[in-house]
């Protein structure tokens, strides 16, 4: 009998998670970029314990149709390309379709989403890659994703996470970078109930710098 075997889907997704998801900030980067690709101009990120125990990302993007909710958590499931030739002209921030599958493999994930054409939205719950629940719910157009207990089933990855305040710092850095290159998007970061970053999405880079770094840095940046 040979020694080479095909890995099961959960193992494959856990391995992919180790490549795509290093820490809470990685989850947030992937999810916020998905929100931007969905056309959102208002994105709110909430975290607790540096994002280790709780992350929620809410946007007002185009949302996900009910028929797409389950397949969205499959590996290489994407709405952004259709064929190899599309790779030459892709303009979205991501296209591989690995983020949701990777996150769902190593966390408890709840997604609520509604498109503009739907009267009501749908809620789906995924844990360790398994879909536990899907039901109709009332919600606004857009998508909300809640990620709890990151790396709960991969203790080797979990032990490499830093203290809560350090992980929070990584998250703030990711949000700062995204906000600076997307001044037309209102972005808010809430850490344990306290708003630490908030931009207004008016397209003015100076107002983004002011919101994050304060007046002195904003004025110095513009005049130098």
CATH superfamily: Histidine kinase-like ATPase, C-terminal domain
Q: How helix-rich are the residues, as a percent range?
A: 25-40%
Which band does the percent of strand residues land in? 15-25%
Total number of helices: 8
Ends distance: 70 Å
The 3D shape can be described as: globular
Q: Structural class of the secondary structure composition? A: alpha+beta
CATH topology: Heat Shock Protein 90
Low-confidence stretches: 79-84, 86-97
Strand order of the largest sheet: 5-4-3-6-2-1-7-8
* SSE pattern: HHEEHHEEEEHHEEHH
* Mean pLDDT across residues: 84
CATH architecture classification: 2-Layer Sandwich
Assign the CATH class: Alpha Beta
Q: How many β-strand stretches?
A: 8
Q: Number of domains in the coordinates? A: 1
| Backbone CA Rg | 18 Å
Largest sheet: 8 strands, mixed
Overview of this protein structure:
- This protein has helices spanning 9-20, 24-37, 66-69, 99-105, 155-158, 164-181, 205-213, 215-223; strands at residues 42-48, 54-59, 108-114, 121-127, 130-137, 142-148, 186-191, 194-198.
- The chain contains eight helices and eight strands.
- An eight-stranded mixed β-sheet has the order 5-4-3-6-2-1-7-8.
- It has 224 residues and is of the alpha+beta class.
- The termini are far apart.
- It is globular, with a radius of gyration of 18 Å.
- The longest helix is centred in the last third of the chain and has 18 residues, at 164-181.
- The model is unreliable at 79-84 and 86-97 (pLDDT under 50).
- Strand 3 (108-114) and strand 4 form a beta hairpin.
- Helix 6 packs antiparallel against helix 7 (205-213).
- It has a single domain, classed as Histidine kinase-like ATPase, C-terminal domain (Heat Shock Protein 90), CATH 3.30.565.
